[in-house]
Amino acid sequence: MLLRQNESAAYAIGASLYDYRWHVVATDLAGIVIDREQVDLATPDAEAAVAGLGDGIQRLRQRLDPQRMLPLIGIGPPGLVDVSSDVVKSATDLGWRDVPIGERITERTGVPCAVVNRSKAGALAAYWHIARRTVDHLIFISIGTGVSAGIVQQGRLLLGANSSAGELGHITIVPDGPRCECGNRGCLQELISERAIASGARAALRRNPDSVLLEICGHHPETLTAFQVLDAAERGDAVALSVVETISGYLTVAVANLINLFNPQLIILGGPVAERSPRLVASVARSVGDRAMAYPLSVARIVSNELGPEAGAVGTAVLVLENAPRLILQLPIYR
Q: Are 229 and 201 in contact (CB under 8 A)?
């Protein structure tokens, strides 16, 4: 007799902060989203973010059967996360330091939490939904207000000695480049993040006042956003295209290094920037062969994130699902 799992027997809740918006999802036991909630933040202040997330989780729970909820909430914030204490040690792009987000959400909800960096959560989601039948080695790169990577090796999430593996945004690309808030110079994050894209476009506009970007921002370059630049590039604006090609060059160096170091089968480019710019993803995929070693490159594919802005939230729900047997048996959770 074959036994079949009843995928609606229980559900998991996961959340991830994605460009000043909390995505909160409930998934069934197959990791399929069955309900969702969004919370927009007026400010990246940590206290406001914690309060907003707590409210979003409560609204979602009110619509679902409390008896079927797995007794753990997954949370995917940005930055350096200590998974042993569920504390965000540092998120430089948001100005967070030593934020005990797991403890705060448990205080609000009465449910234990498991906290992991949002890019690591994105890697879990990608592995669960896209790759686990065919791929054992993948890297998920998130590009938005910051830059980070989640690395899956032999089907397991790579955390590192103190859960800080994958801080791709703080590798040095230009030794004498712009100063980063981490204290270094020339970090990838300072070269390809949303802020870097907007800043690069503003500088280019001074040399190219005929660009359509000037009309898009109402002749106020200081209001120009990264997404306006990316959209203009997709429409063929020369200034916007030059900015995308510049960030593509920096990102290609980083991706080639990852290919040489980790020998992945799949690299997924996600986060607000990559998901808004098919041109950027295509450019990196096209040019990475100029920098990566041929043999590890021969098994690597570079693709866009198909899961969209909920990838991190789904990944944190997957973290809960992976612990479901331990939760049922009341054993310590596994990260």
A: yes
Distance between CA atoms of 270 and 147, rounded to whole angstroms?
A: 10
The verdict on 223 and 91 lying in the same domain is: no
317 domain residue, yes or no: yes
Q: Is the dihedral of CA 241, 141, 172, 223 positive or negative?
A: positive
Helix (H) or strand (E) holding 143: strand 138-143
**Taking residues 144-149, what's their average pLDDT?**
93
- What pLDDT is recorded for position 93? 75
Higher pLDDT, 293 or 1: 293
Q: Report the CATH number that the domain containing residue 256 is assigned in CATH.
A: 3.30.420.40
In this prediction, residues 306-326 reach a mean pLDDT of 92
Domains: count for the chain: 2
- In 3D, which of 76, 103, 81 has the Cα closest to residue 91? 81
Helical spans, DSSP H, in 172-219: 189-192, 194-207, 212-216
- Mean pLDDT value of segment 298-306: 97
Q: What is the DSSP code (8-state) at residue 129? A: I
| Shared domain check, 212 and 187 | yes
- Give the angle 53-60-123 at the CA atoms, nearest 5°: 65
Q: Which domain range does residue 95 map to?
A: 11-115+310-328
- Tell me the percentage of the chain whose pLDDT exceeds 70: 95
H runs (alpha helix) in the chain: 46-62, 101-109, 118-126, 189-192, 194-207, 212-216, 226-234, 238-262, 271-276, 278-287, 294-297, 311-322, 324-328
CB 61 within 8 A of CB 158: no
Token reading at 104: 């705060």
Overall pTM surpassing 0.70 (yes/no): yes
Residue 233 dihedral angles phi and psi, to the nearest 5°? -65, -40
Instruction: Return the ∠ at Cα 71 (arms to 70 and 72), rounded to 5°.
Output: 100
More confident site: 278 or 2: 278
Q: Does the residue 333 lie in any domain?
A: no
Query: How do residues 26-62 score in pLDDT, each as one tens digit?
Result: 999 999 999 999 999 998 899 999 999 999 999 999 9
Instruction: Compute CA distances 222 → 195, 199, 241, whole Å.
Output: 11, 9, 19
